[in-house]
Amino acid sequence: MFQMLCCSRHGAAVLPGWRSCCLLLLVLLRCWALDHRPGGALTVVESTMGGGGGTGDEDPEATVDDDDDEDDNLEVLQPNEHWQTLKPGQAVPAGSHVRLNLQTGQREVRLGEEQLKYWTQEHREPSIDPDELKRAMKKMKEEMKSQDSVASRFRPLEELKKDMAELDLLVETDVQIMKRLLEQFNSSSSSTEQRLSILLELEYLVHQVDNAQTLCSMGGLSLILDGLNSSDIRLQENSALVLGSAAASNPVVQVHAVEGGALQTLLTSLATAQQLSVRKKVLFALASLLRHFPYAQRHFLSHGGLTILSELFRADVGGILRTRIVTMLYDMITEKVLIFQAGPDPVQDPSHEERQRQYAQVSLQEELMEKGWCRLVPQLLQSSEHDYREKALRALLAMAPVCLDQYRSDPSLLGSLHSLQLQYLELVRSETILGDDSSYFTEMVELIDTLQVKVR
Ligand SMILES: *[C@@H]1O[C@H](CO)[C@@H](O)[C@H](O)[C@H]1NC(C)=O
Ligand SMILES: *[C@@H]1O[C@H](CO)[C@@H](O)[C@H](O)[C@H]1NC(C)=O
């Protein structure tokens, strides 16, 4: 899809006249062929799976290697906005949100929040329907035939080849685009507005695993980190967005970024940023950097990350940051639990032991308890948003192994659970009477019940 868009953006649009018609056809054919190569790196599944390492997936088999060939054998579950149970051996596209259902022990997947937010909404691309494309090409062929039958049908092969060669020159590859963008970004003559639009283009490009790695190898990360440290709020925000998108499910970028000092820069900027919009995006970048990366998680903890997060949590009255923080912590807890859990699918992964060893050094749960999170997370239950409460309940369950004593002696938590239970039972009842789907509220009741049983 992307290649197609790229071709039409950077190739065909610049050519005039009849020639452009012919070239456009060639471009379209070329793009279409690229996009539909069965084993090509540009098909949707391939491009989402291409990173191999740490897609949103918790499956160790799908998270370790970068080998594209391996991925061909994986069955890929396409997530939507509802939770679906992940069967053994199934993989999910990068950025999906995978959780462990603590009641059933099964893994469930849906579209990741950042995917939903940053991709579906802000980046809704004009998609090109293959049928539409075929119709357009057919029409073009007919027009060309009627215009100039002999000349167009019997053009010398050499001439066609020349057109093809010109095309290669005209179609700017992603690598060339990124090189140009980074040079412009780095140029002292670029204005802030120009830098902002460059960041937007980069953010779009780095969703592709290869592009994000190219950004690293071109030294782009340090420019992005400078942007994060800039005094301009919009530059900070958009730099964080580029960093987060590049690091998401991309182990190579994660390693580069942490080596380049991204963790410290992000934590500093999280501690100092005043605007919610900046905090949100920096938090997104931080979460991308930490996911499936125990080394970074350990350094996050030793650099006082939890203290900074708890300050943010306390200061956030609206609840959106609280929810994102709690979700991020929940993801980190379950990711570690899954590594140590003998999953439903046998693990044939030689690096598994090493990963267990690395995760063993991340004492997240203990630190959460020491830094007061057993008392903090329950505060999120007081939100009026179902979704926020759900996140809180899941996190509370995940933290239960270290927090139970504190839960038991927390009258406001016990009170919240009791009143939420009544509220959701009532919601289930009224939805059922109305004949509406009550499954979400039923799930909430079950979460509350499970937690109450533990606390009892
Ligand atoms: C940015 O420009 C400086 C010189 O002005 C150069 O040393 C540096 O390598 C450039 N960085 C990138 C990523 O192009
Ligand atoms: C960020 O900017 C401050 C000054 O505004 C500077 O002291 C610090 O070294 C910069 N950090 C990075 C990583 O560039």
Automatic annotation (TrEMBL):
* Feature: compositional bias, Acidic residues: 56-71
Any keyword Endoplasmic reticulum? yes
One example of a Gene Ontology biological process annotation: skeletal muscle fiber development
Q: Where is the signal peptide?
A: 1-33
Q: Does the keyword Glycoprotein apply?
A: yes
- Sorted alphabetically, which InterPro entries does this protein's record hold? ARM-like, ARM-type_fold, Hsp70_NEF-Inhibitors, Nucleotide_exch_fac_Fes1
Cell compartment(s), UniProt: Endoplasmic reticulum lumen
**Residues covered by region (Disordered):** 45-71
Q: Which family does it belong to?
A: Belongs to the SIL1 family.
Function summary: Required for protein translocation and folding in the endoplasmic reticulum (ER). Functions as a nucleotide exchange factor for the ER lumenal chaperone HSPA5.
Its name, as the record gives it, is: Nucleotide exchange factor SIL1
> Origin organism of this chain?
Cyprinodon variegatus (Sheepshead minnow)
